């Protein structure tokens, strides 16, 4: 029997656990069942107690102490250990019926999503190609506050793309902490980030007056200056050619926003099952009337 799941990913502090909590609360309020899996071996506190916790298999603290590893090496060790002990997941997830949404809360170390082949192996086990046959959707969170620093926004977008290409499952990008950008950026401008407008890399404010050297210490100048123009265009072209990169907006406190994202995730899974392409990002319209 097919199962459904969402793999919640993103950089450290992006709001993954808060999103999982909001998702669980929303599901409870709507009488839907879920099964919450914590795969962060360093996570300590939870608003909702996980139904399955990697710490019952291995804890980062023990690994660091016993193996003399640092936090990043320790995390990789924990995931390698999990891959050698996949029964830990199989035994817990296999009996679940399709009524359950499996919510998997991931750690924030960016390496996991970019160049290490651990996650593809894990996803393979969880999905159709592996033992568990979970219809999985990846939800990649990026902090909305990054949009005020374009270099960070595009770096985040590239890491989201990297995860999307590596995992090959339906993928939804989410700008979290939307409440924190209110007032900092007009909603009209935000539209250019929600559906990344690659000319943003070319029209950095003040770029015309730039002498090509950038200004030391100003994060906005990281991507500007004549010497970066060609690089910026190459990056823009890359993002453009994967035009599936677009963001849903998440206001964690807002039940409607969590509900809309969940229905988008449901849709993404259904479309993937039917193997039809899906137009991204029409779940939440940016409301210019709110400017
Ligand atoms: N203002 C605001 N704060 C948020 C929001 N979502 C999360 N936070 C805060 O951001 C911090 C990090 O949130 P977490 O949910 O722990 O982030 P995480 O991605 O799970 O963090 P790691 O597991 O450490 O990678 C916490 O202090 C949250 O309260 C939001 O929508 N708005």
Automatic annotation (TrEMBL):
CDD domains, A to Z: GPN3
Subunit relationships: Binds to RNA polymerase II (RNAPII).
Region: Disordered, residue numbers: 197-220
InterPro entries named in the record: Gpn, Gpn3, P-loop_NTPase
Lineage, uppermost ranks: Eukaryota, Fungi, Dikarya, Ascomycota, Pezizomycotina
Keywords (A to Z) from UniProt: GTP-binding, Hydrolase, Nucleotide-binding
Function statement: Small GTPase required for proper nuclear import of RNA polymerase II and III (RNAPII and RNAPIII). May act at an RNAP assembly step prior to nuclear import.
UniProt similarity note: Belongs to the GPN-loop GTPase family.
Species: Amylocarpus encephaloides
Entry GO MF terms: GTP binding; GTPase activity
Name listed for the protein in its UniProt record: GPN-loop GTPase 3
Compositionally biased spans, kind Acidic residues: 200-212
Gene3D superfamilies assigned to the protein according to its UniProt record, in alphabetical order: P-loop containing nucleotide triphosphate hydrolases
């Amino acid at each position: 029997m097919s199962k459904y799941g969402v793999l919640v990913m993103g950089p450290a502090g992006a709001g993954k656990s808060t999103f999982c909590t909001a998702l669980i609360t929303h599901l409870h309020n709507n009488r839907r069942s879920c099964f919450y899996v914590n795969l962060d071996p360093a996570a300590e506190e939870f608003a909702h107690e996980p139904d399955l916790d990697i710490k019952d298999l291995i804890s980062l603290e023990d690994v660091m102490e016993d193996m003399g590893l640092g936090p990043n090496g320790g995390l990789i060790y924990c995931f390698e250990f999990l891959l050698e002990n996949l029964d830990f997941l199989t035994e817990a997830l296999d009996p679940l019926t399709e009524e359950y949404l499996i919510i998997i809360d991931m750690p924030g170390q960016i390496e996991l999503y970019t160049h290490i082949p651990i996650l593809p192996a894990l996803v393979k086990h969880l999905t159709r190609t592996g033992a568990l046959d979970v219809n999985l959707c990846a939800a990649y969170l990026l902090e909305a506050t990054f949009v005020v620093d374009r270099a960070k926004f595009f770096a985040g977008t590239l890491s989201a793309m990297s995860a999307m290409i590596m995992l090959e499952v339906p993928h939804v990008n989410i700008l979290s902490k939307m409440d924190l950008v209110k007032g900092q950026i007009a909603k009209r401008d935000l539209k250019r980030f929600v559906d990344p407008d690659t000319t943003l890399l070319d029209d950095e404010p003040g770029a015309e007056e730039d002498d090509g050297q950038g200004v030391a210490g100003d994060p906005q100048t990281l991507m500007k200056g004549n010497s970066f123009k060609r690089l910026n265009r190459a990056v823009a072209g890359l993002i453009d050619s994967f035009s599936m990169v677009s963001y849903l907006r998440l206001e964690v406190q807002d039940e409607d926003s969590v509900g809309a994202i969940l229905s988008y995730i449901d849709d993404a899974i259904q479309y993937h099952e039917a193997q039809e392409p899906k137009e991204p990002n029409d779940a939440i319209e940016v409301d210019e009337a709110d400017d």
